């Protein structure tokens, strides 16, 4: 069965000065002939009138023709750079729909065809999805590294090494009756250990999801300790209600912000105390305790030494008459006057940069991390074995994990979930 030719607007939502309508599939060339009445020179922009089936002029557009397979999707591909008004786009899409064998694209269908036709692998597709959803500079840089093939090259090099090690095992098994080749090559186990160590170092890196979630900072302390005032100062908005009345904050308040391109999630919580004034406040305290467990960092505004292990001691309300100094605070500040806020933000930036993937550094997502952990587990087992058949089986298990990692072996459900993240036209 011949695959349908798809089309969709691939530029921003109209209206706009220019809209790009992309056509991909076996009838992309025929669609151009029907719209324009002529053929086009490959990979050269040409100005042409677009005509519908009744001979009515739709628009005058810049037309580009890319015969496959060396295209973004691996298929015949065409682009119409037309005027970006809603009526113009709608008229062209109606004309394309009237052509036999053409249909509107589903979300992510262009990229899925690129994957199916070997133009990109799974890691590059995931990087592209992250790039489209990037909201901070760190997210963009990490996504570009993945989408450009940095991770794919690393995965392929590791897979090639596992294949080489497997071939050595197979050779030893094939010629095990001959004395001079009955053993594995010198350094075989060392090579497995070296590969396992390199993969383990990647597994210990921060994952890419942290760039989307942000470095999670939870403000904690007793009621009326200045948490909400500090929270507002950090997110630079009046997100939380402040009051001298204890217990004003009853629920978790969360805001995501970027500071110098670094993503943060700041969380304001209910004041912690042993006995709550009412059931609603008690629920807020329970939720606050839950947030402490999820935090990357806790800012403790209560009595010194009473916070969680590893929490930063903050001496707040420096301008208040009842200010209580701390012996070794990370920050002394007044959120009302701004004293100490800039220094605290600087320290938070340093902590977040240590915990998040480095700028421009490719980072594993959860799926990639799981598959790579399977490889590391297989290598760890292989280096402890002496039976050649068992060693070969563990290396085969590692190869299969790499195939699932790269996309040579995967499930339709997983692909549906991935490409469903893309917009129509991508």
Write a concise synopsis of the structure shown:
Helix content is 43%, strand content 17%. The chain has 426 residues and is α/β, with parallel strands linked by helices.
List the defining traits of the structure above.
426 residues, alpha/beta, Gyrase A, domain 2, Four Helix Bundle (Hemerythrin (Met), subunit A), Rossmann fold, 6-stranded mixed β-sheet, 43% helix
Please characterize this protein's 3D structure.
The chain is α/β, with parallel strands linked by helices and 426 residues long. A hairpin with a 6-residue loop joins strand 1 and strand 2. The chain contains 14 helices and twelve strands. Helix 6 runs antiparallel to helix 13 (388-406). Mean pLDDT is 85; it is low at 239-250. A six-stranded mixed β-sheet has the order 3-4-5-2-1-6. A six-stranded mixed β-sheet has the order 8-9-7-10-11-12, sandwiched between helices. The longest helix has 25 residues, at 150-174. The protein has three domains: 5-116, Probable tRNA modification gtpase trme, domain 1 (Gyrase A, domain 2, 2-Layer Sandwich); 124-178 and 364-406, Four Helix Bundle (Hemerythrin (Met), subunit A), CATH 1.20.120; 215-355, 3-Layer(aba) Sandwich (Rossmann fold). Helices cover 43% and strands 17% of the residues.
């Amino acid at each position: 069965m011949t695959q349908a030719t798809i089309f969709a607007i691939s530029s921003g939502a109209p209206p706009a000065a220019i809209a790009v309508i992309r056509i991909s599939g076996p009838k992309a060339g025929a669609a151009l002939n029907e719209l324009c009445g002529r053929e086009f020179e490959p990979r050269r922009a040409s100005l042409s009138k677009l005509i519908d089936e009744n001979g009515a002029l739709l628009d005058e557009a810049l037309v580009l023709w890319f015969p496959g397979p060396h295209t973004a999707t691996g298929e015949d591909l065409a682009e119409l750079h037309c005027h970006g008004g809603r009526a113009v786009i709608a008229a062209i899409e109606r004309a394309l729909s009237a052509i036999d064998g053409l249909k509107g694209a589903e979300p992510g269908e262009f990229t899925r065809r690129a994957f199916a036709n070997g133009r990109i692998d799974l890691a590059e597709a995931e990087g592209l999805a992250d790039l489209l959803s990037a909201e901070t500079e760190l997210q963009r840089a990490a996504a570009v590294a993945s989408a450009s093939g940095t991770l794919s090259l690393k995965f392929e090099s590791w897979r090639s090494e596992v294949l080489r090690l497997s071939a050595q095992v197979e050779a030893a098994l094939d010629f095990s009756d001959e004395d001079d080749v009955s053993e594995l090559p010198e350094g075989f186990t060392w090579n497995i250990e070296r590969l396992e160590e390199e993969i383990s170092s990647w597994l210990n890196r921060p994952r890419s999801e942290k760039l989307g979630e942000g470095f999670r900072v939870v403000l904690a302390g007793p009621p009326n300790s200045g948490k909400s005032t500090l929270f507002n100062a950090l997110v630079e908005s009046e997100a939380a209600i402040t009051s001298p009345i204890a217990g004003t904050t009853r629920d978790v308040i969360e805001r995501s912000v970027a500071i110098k391109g670094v993503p943060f999630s700041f969380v304001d919580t209910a004041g912690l105390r042993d006995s709550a004034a009412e059931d609603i406040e008690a629920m807020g305290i329970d939720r606050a305790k839950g947030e402490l467990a999820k935090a990357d960092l806790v800012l403790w505004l209560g009595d010194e030494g009473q916070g969680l292990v590893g929490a930063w001691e903050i001496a707040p309300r420096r301008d208040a008459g009842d200010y209580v100094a701390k012996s070794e605070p990370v920050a002394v500040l007044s959120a009302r006057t701004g004293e100490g806020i800039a220094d605290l933000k600087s320290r938070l930036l340093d902590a977040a940069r240590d915990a998040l993937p480095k700028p421009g550094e490719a980072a594993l997502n959860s799926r990639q991390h799981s598959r790579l952990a399977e490889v590391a587990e297989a290598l760890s087992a292989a280096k402890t074995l002496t039976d050649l058949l068992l060693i070969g089986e563990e290396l085969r298990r590692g190869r299969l994990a790499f195939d699932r990692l790269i996309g040579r072996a995967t499930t339709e459900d997983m692909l549906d979930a991935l490409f469903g993240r893309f917009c129509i036209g991508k």
